[in-house]
Amino acid sequence: MAPLLQVRGLTTIFDTQDGVVHAVNGVSFDLNEGETLGVVGESGCGKSVSMLSILRLIPEPPGRIVGGEVLFEGRDLLKLDQNEIRKIRGNKIAMIFQDPMTSLNPVLTIGQQISEALELHLNMTKEEARQRTIELLRLVHIPEAESRVNDYPHQFSGGMRQRVMIAMALSCNPKVLIADEPTTALDVTIQAQIVDLVKELRRELGMAIIWITHDLGIVAGLAHRVQVMYAGYIVERANVHDLYANPRHPYTLGLLRSLPRLDARTREKLTPIEGLPPDLITLPLGCPFYPRCSYRVPRCLDENPALHAVDGQDGHEVACWVDVTQREEIRA
Fold it and tell me: Which pLDDT score, from 0 to 100, does residue 163 have?
């Protein structure tokens, strides 16, 4: 069966006074029906920009999508006109943003904001849209939905606002849900509730999910596959179990070593990744992780490795010239 979403060579840049920022550099991946794909990496690695590019939500100017294709239902989303892409956004591909307070309109009720998409995409009457909105609020476990549909965003807590955003994203039964760090602004208890809610909705509705985060702990219990991004590149991807049990890129190793482990039998100090990410205006010729890498070899300085399969692990790919398990350079 063909993937639900196919991204090939996606490249996005931003024109600034200081130069051209290479934010996304030839990203390629597939998303299957009913699958949850985790996209992880530190701030500024291109996670959000790559997903915003898929929906053509990059502000132009200063941003520009300069290469690649995004195939969904047999069409390249990058070639659609504005009217056609609007029919996709919020309808077949929906997105939950990081901060629900700034994503919701403060002068419109929750009911008005959810009903708008239903009336626009599904041609519902106002009363039909209102009843569907109440059903959606119940679906995301907002109590007293019949009365709360008339409330404004400031009358909800942060966790409840995020539930409203999820309800809004689900309003038109999308095939793909993109969640851009939806739990970052919430405390850990509410984070767990939101993650459990998304898992429950995935089982009930069968939609595919792309979950963007810098928190490897969250995707461990949520995603089927994980891809790790650094400096606008995908540097490793694998199913979630292989990635955590057998990481093969030095950056992935660094991310995992910076996480506290509840299953550790001995006390181990958390190990930070030394240094800073590269300047995306002047990307290096070789591997962008070279200055921060303890496994580097001379070849890393001159050539940026492409993703290649890891022996013996189906679907596990890494972009590195070194076998980190042996600390030896990979010979073609």
Answer: 87
Residues 6+ apart with CB under 8 A from 94: 168, 169, 170, 171, 172, 174, 176, 177, 178
Q: Are the C-beta atoms of 47 and 245 separated by less than 8 Å?
A: no
Residues 255, 228: Cα–Cα separation, whole Å? 10
With beta carbons less than 8 A apart as the criterion, state whether 46 and 227 touch: no
Partners of 227 in the β-ladder: 39, 237
Q: Summarize pLDDT for 246-265 with one digit per residue, the tens.
A: 999 999 999 888 777 666 55
- Residue recorded with tokens 């690649």: 68
pLDDT value of position 52: 93
| Contact (CB, 8 A) for 169 and 121 | no
Contacts of 266 (CB under 8 A, 6+ apart): none
| Terminal Cα distance for the chain, rounded | 32
pLDDT in tens, 150-192: 999 999 988 888 889 888 888 888 899 999 888 776 778 888 8
